[in-house]
Amino acid sequence: MSLQSLLAKLPFGPWRKAGPLVSVVRLTGVIGQGGPLRSGLTLAGVAPLLERAFAPKDQKAVALIVNSPGGSPVQSALIAKRIRDLAEEKKLPVFAFCEDAAASGGYWLACAADEIWADESSILGSIGVVSSGFGLHGLIERHGIERRLYTAGDKKVLLDPFSPEREDGVAHLKALQADVHEAFKAMVRSRRGSRLVGPEEELFSGAFWAGRRALALGLIDGLGDIRSVLRGRFGEKLRLRVVQQERGMLRRLGLRTGLETGYGDAPALEAGAPEAFAEALVAAARTSLDDWAARARLGL
Fold first, then answer.
1. pLDDT digits over 212-255, tens only?
2. Which pLDDT value is given to residue 92?
3. 2-11, 94-103, 156-165: segment of lowest average pLDDT
4. Peptidase S49 domain spans which residues (predicted)?
5. How confident is the model at residue 196 (pLDDT cuts 50, 70, 90)?
6. Which secondary structure element, helix H or strand E, spans residue 65, and what is its range?
7. Contact criterion met (CB below 8 Å) for 41 and 77
8. Integer Cα distance of 48 and 55 in angstroms
């Protein structure tokens, strides 16, 4: 046995032979612009993490931990495309591990992986498009409030919540939703291919399922957690390298100083500016409600 082989068996020092490396990126939360105290998942925020995750030359794969009820289809597509571009450039397999939910845009992100794994209680699917709002014209009429709205262009305002619903506005919205839905379906078909089982009428209905049913439909490749699956694939000496943003005290609060941090759209918090902090709290409450509403649609 060579000296190098003997040194590699030592449990310490630079000679120790390290195990296989897999970088891990966590994709958590509603997809899209968030608020000052809770940032959403956007390409601008996630791209630096993905670049770092795919950077090591000696690693075996990249793992994504997905926990998202969905959100912006545009940001979903942009993040998924960046993952695929990096995977093809670095010639690395990508594994997605779904936690509470990988639904709607969250499932779009999971489809960027070569394999999708989940817990048997994870919520998956929701391959559809949703838009919601309120009709408040009756309320303001009862309180004697007059709505004044002036436009140039008869379709400039089609879905004003303070005006009666317009049939052409609803038709226009449904056409937009159909276009986005087709893009979503094309993404799932291209990534899952022959692994999909069952009629498309069910798969693409917007319905969602728990892990075992999702596995039977071919939406995922197996049930399991990140450590168990990757150790089974790459061995017991597997090293998981978690890639995450470095956060100071203010950034943990979702705020930033007058210096640009490059993370999110939080307003500057400067001395003598309590208004900024108040606005941050209001925006945080709104973001939390958006997150709650998205998860509530999944029964979470």
1. 999 999 999 999 999 999 999 999 999 999 999 765 444 444 44
2. 98
3. 2-11
4. 88-230
5. very high
6. strand 61-68
7. no
8. 11
Task: Work out the burial of residue 289: count CB atoms within 10 Å of its CB; fewer than 13 is exposed, 13-18 middle, 19 or more buried.
Answer: exposed
Tokens encoding 73:
């289809």
Residues with Cβ within 8 Å of 51's Cβ and at least 6 positions away in sequence, in order, are: 86
The class of domain 3-126+207-296 in CATH terms is alpha beta
Q: Pairing mode, if any, of strands 21-28 and 123-125?
A: unpaired
Strands 208-210 and 123-125: antiparallel
Please give the C-alpha separations between residue 108 and each of 34, 114, 129, 155, in angstroms, as whole numbers: 19, 12, 12, 31
Question: Shortest CA distance to 79 belongs to which of 128, 36, 55, 113?
Answer: 113
DSSP per position, 42-63: -HHHHHHHHHHHT--SS-SEEE
CA dihedral 174, 68, 31, 248 (to 10 degrees): 170
- Return the amino acid letter for 127: I
The band of 271, judged by pLDDT with boundaries at 50, 70 and 90, is very low
Half-sphere exposure of 175 (CA within 13 A, CB side): 6
Query: Angle between the 167-192 and 73-90 helix axes, to the nearest 10 degrees?
Result: 20
Crossing angle (nearest 10°) for helices 43-53 and 73-90: 20
Question: Is-contact 214 118, C-beta < 8 A?
Answer: yes
250/266 Cα distance (integer angstroms): 11
Q: Which residues contact 221 (CB under 8 A, 6 or more apart)?
A: 115, 116, 117, 195, 215
Length of the chain: 300
